[in-house]
Amino acid sequence: MEKVNSGSCLCGGVRFQISGDFQSFFLCHCSRCRKDTGSAHAANLFSTTAKITWLSGLDQVRGYRLPDTRHERCFCGICGSALPAQQMNGALLVVPAGSLDGPIDIKPTAHICYGSRAAWDDVLGAVTVLDGLPG
C-alpha cells in the first residue's frame, strides 16, 4: 500500500496529500533557509517519486524564487505558512516537514550547510525545555 501523508497550512485554507515515499529529510542551516523560516534551520522532506494532490486552497498558494538562484519556496497567501513546492521543473517535490499534519516515518538524514549555521545554534541543546508556555 502506498504511503499517504496529509498536510495543511496554519489557517486551514490550503490542504494537500502526498502519495509516495520521501528519499531524504534535510535540516538546512543556510542563511536563505533561516530567512525563510525565521528559525535555526529549515526542515524539508525531498522526493523524486512522490506526488502531491491539492485538496483545497490551491488558489491561495504563492511562490517565490530568489533571482539567479535555485532557492524557492511556496507558502499560503493568507497565513504565510510554508507549503510543498515542485522544483527542478517538477522533478523534485520539497515538503516542509512542519506542514504535514501527522507523524512521518523518516528521520532527518543530515544537517546541511551546517558551516553557515547561526552562532546561537550551537547552544540549543543546553537551553531549558518546557512542555508548555513559560509561567
Number of strands: 11
| Shape label | globular
Computed Rg: 15 Å
Q: How far apart lie the N and C ends?
A: 46 Å
Strand content: 35-45%
Number of helices: 1
Main sheet makeup: 5 strands, mixed
Strand order in the largest sheet: 9-10-4-3-11
- Approximate helicity band: under 10%
Q: Which oligomerization state do the chains in this entry correspond to?
A: single chain
Question: Helix- and strand-based class?
Answer: mainly beta
Q: Helix and strand succession?
A: EEEHEEEEEEEE
Low-confidence stretches: none
Average pLDDT reading: 95
In brief:
The protein has one helix spanning 31-37, and strands at 4-8, 15-19, 24-28, 42-47, 51-56, 61-65, 72-76, 82-83, 85-87, 92-96, 110-112.
Task: Please explain how this structure is put together.
This protein is mainly beta and 135 residues long. Helix content is 5%, strand content 37%. It has one helix spanning 31-37; strands spanning 4-8, 15-19, 24-28, 42-47, 51-56, 61-65, 72-76, 82-83, 85-87, 92-96, 110-112. A 5-stranded mixed beta sheet has the order 9-10-4-3-11. Strands 1-2-5 form a 3-stranded antiparallel beta sheet, with no helix packed on it. A 3-stranded antiparallel beta sheet has the order 6-7-8, with no helix packed on it. A hairpin with a 6-residue loop joins strand 6 (61-65) and strand 7 (72-76). The termini are far apart. 22% of the residues are buried.
